[in-house]
């Protein structure tokens, strides 16, 4: 089987656990893993010192997170791509899954217990609105 599995990351260890789970699934299915990091604003800051100028943006930070995770997961057997996507995390994952015609979205179960379950979570929103299958990885305990 071929196709794309989308996983969302935010730089946290729980997101990394979900990404490792997604990599295993992609390898098993012969799919490409697509790592996505969301950004919700176009905030940009410019820093300078002498003739040097640096531009830091939310989109750039999100892309850096996705790229770092993708680089750490890349194997010879499983293709891994990455992108930054605009929107709240659940919206961004759903949009990327639709854009790439993904087979599946993998998310962690963080914030699915206690008050987070009442207020909502990324996993809950994705599960109810995804255009494809959703796998909720257990990320709230040591593996």
TrEMBL record:
- Source domain of life is Bacteria
UniProt domain UspA: residue ranges: 1-138
Of which family is this protein a member? Belongs to the universal stress protein A family.
* PANTHER family given in the database record: STRESS RESPONSE PROTEIN NHAX, UNIVERSAL STRESS PROTEIN UP12
Q: What is this protein called?
A: Universal stress protein
Species of the source: Arthrobacter oryzae
């Amino acid at each position: 089987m071929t196709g794309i599995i989308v996983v969302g990351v935010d730089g946290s260890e729980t997101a990394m656990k979900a990404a490792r789970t997604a990599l295993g699934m992609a390898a098993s299915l012969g799919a490409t893993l697509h790592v996505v990091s969301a950004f919700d604003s176009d905030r940009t800051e410019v820093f300078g010192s002498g003739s040097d100028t640096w531009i830091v943006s939310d989109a750039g930070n999100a892309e850096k997170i996705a790229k770092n995770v993708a680089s750490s997961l890349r194997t010879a057997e499983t293709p891994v791509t990455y992108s930054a996507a605009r929107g709240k995390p659940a919206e961004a994952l759903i949009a990327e899954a639709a854009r790439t015609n993904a087979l599946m979205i993998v998310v962690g179960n963080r914030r699915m217990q206690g008050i987070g379950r009442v207020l909502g979570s990324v996993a809950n929103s994705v599960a109810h609105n995804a255009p494809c299958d959703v796998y909720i990885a257990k990320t709230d305990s040591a593996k």
